[in-house]
Structures are given as structure tokens and as C-alpha cells.
Amino acid sequence: MVSQQLKIYYPTSSSILKVSSIKLLKELAWETLGAFKHRDQRRLRKLNDDILHSAALSFNAIHFRMAVFSYVLSKIVSKPRLLSHDNAPALKNIENALGMVVRSFERNDPKISDAAFNQLDRAITTLEKADPRFIVNLMTKGKLKMAATLYAQGLSLGTASEVTGMEKQEILDYAGETMMFDRLKEEKPMSERIKTARSLIGD
Predict the structure, then answer these.
(1) Phi-psi region of 131 (alpha: psi -120 to 50; beta: other; left: phi over 0)
(2) Rounded CA separation 172/164 (Å)
(3) Taking the domains of the chain in order of start, what are their residue ranges?
(4) pLDDT tens per residue across span 91-129
(5) Where are the beta strands (DSSP E) in 65-129?
(6) Fewer CB near the terminus (10 Å): N or C of the chain?
């Protein structure tokens, strides 16, 4: 049975973040695994949007990391050279590691999830031999996209920077270049987004 509350600690903060349930994230993660196995780029992109939106609303570390990795996986599938026969073992390792991540959600234990995410990170880095610059940039861009979305959703620039590890100016530059504020400003008033975020962290 999935617990009704999680307590997640950020590596850079002592704040305790609360989540009502991870059932939705678990389902999205299973779908991500299936889409990656089928190399379905379109589906992966849609799932990344869903997970990123969930991360912005739920404001917890597990959602953040899943949002970054779902973005990276969608980009990996978009590059035929990374899907070559030579990379089959590395891709299989990614599938196995992603499966570990999904199963860790069922245990509802942040420590287990953290270990599973670290395994997925290591599995993805095995693709660096195929295209090292692309893979490294993928991880950075994934974090930037997540940070800019959180900021555009109403979280403070400092908070978005802290929870993602990205520099404030990088977040501002990415949000401006992608016109993220224009796309998100109609979803919910900023005051309401900030109020929701603060209620989740107990401020």
C-alpha cells in the first residue's frame, strides 16, 4: 500500500516537503518505461510534460529528478546514433535502471528511490562513449528546463536555483529564451502558485 505522506529532504536544504501521494508519479514512471522500451519519442515527450507539470505542483525531490530523467530519455530516443546496435547493452542497462526507479516508488522510501535514480544516472552516462557532449548537455538542459518551469510557475528564483542546482542567471536566460512565462502565465495566478508552494513546505 502506498503511504499517504512522504517526507523528502533536499541535499541542500533542511526543509521537509510533503506529498499527498506518489501514485500518479508511479503510473507516469511506468508509462515512461514502456515508452522508452518502444522508443516512442512522441509519447516520451508528452510524459515529460506531464511529469514536469506534476513536479511543479507537488514540489518534491522525487518528482524533480523524474522530470529531468524523463526529458533526457525522450532526447536519447530522438537520436538514431544513440539507438544503434553498438549501444544495445547501454540502452538495456537504462531500461533496467528505470525499472528499479519505478519499483522503488512502490516501496515509498526516498532512500531507495535515491539509490535507484543514481543507478539510472550511471546507466545513462554509459552512452557518453557514443556522444559525450550531447549526453552531458542533456542533463544540464533537463535541469534548466525544470528550474525555469518552476520559476515560471511562481516559485522564487532562489528556490528554483537551490532545488535544481542551477545558477540563477542560467535559469533567467533559459526562461527568457524559451518564452516560458508567456506560455505558463495563464495557467494559474502567480499569487495562487506561490501560496500553494508555500503550503506544501509548511511556510
Answers:
(1) beta
(2) 13
(3) 6-201
(4) 999 999 999 999 998 888 778 888 999 999 889 888 877
(5) none
(6) N
